Amino acid sequence: MRLEEMALNAWPALHTTLLDGWLLRSANGYTKRSNSVSAIYQGNQHSLDAKIRWSEEYYARLGQNPIFKITPFVPEGLDQELDKRG
């Protein structure tokens, strides 16, 4: 986890929004790394479905497709749920 946090800080985004343990990062579409969802903390306030939907809406407002960074720290089932959604 610490290494992932260091990587996120080494390549900062212009804006970061915290969503129940997920970091929604944006940098005017410059790079995928700085314009993606990093679901590195579990969080427990909202369902997986709600967080995916809100993430999609966040990037839609920016005129971007949502990109989810998949690491060993993502919540269980996220990868499979994203696959189901295409």
Describe this structure as you would to a colleague.
The structure is a single chain. With 86 residues, this protein is α+β, with helices and mostly antiparallel strands. It has one domain. The protein contains three helices and four strands. A four-stranded mixed sheet has the order 1-2-3-4, covered by helices on one side. Helix 2 (48-61) links the parallel strand 3 (37-38) and strand 4 (68-69). The model has no long low-confidence stretch (mean pLDDT 88).
Outline the secondary-structure elements.
Elements: H1 2-10, E1 15-19, E2 22-26, E3 37-38, H2 48-61, E4 68-69, H3 78-85
Parallel strand pairs: 3-4
Antiparallel strand pairs: 1-2, 2-3
Which regions contain 5 or more consecutive residues with pLDDT less than 50? none
The amount of helix comes to: 25-40%
**Helix segment count?**
3
Read across the widest sheet, the strand sequence of neighbours is 1-2-3-4
How is this structure best summarized?
The protein has one domain.
List keywords for this structure.
86 residues; alpha+beta; 3 helices; 16% strand
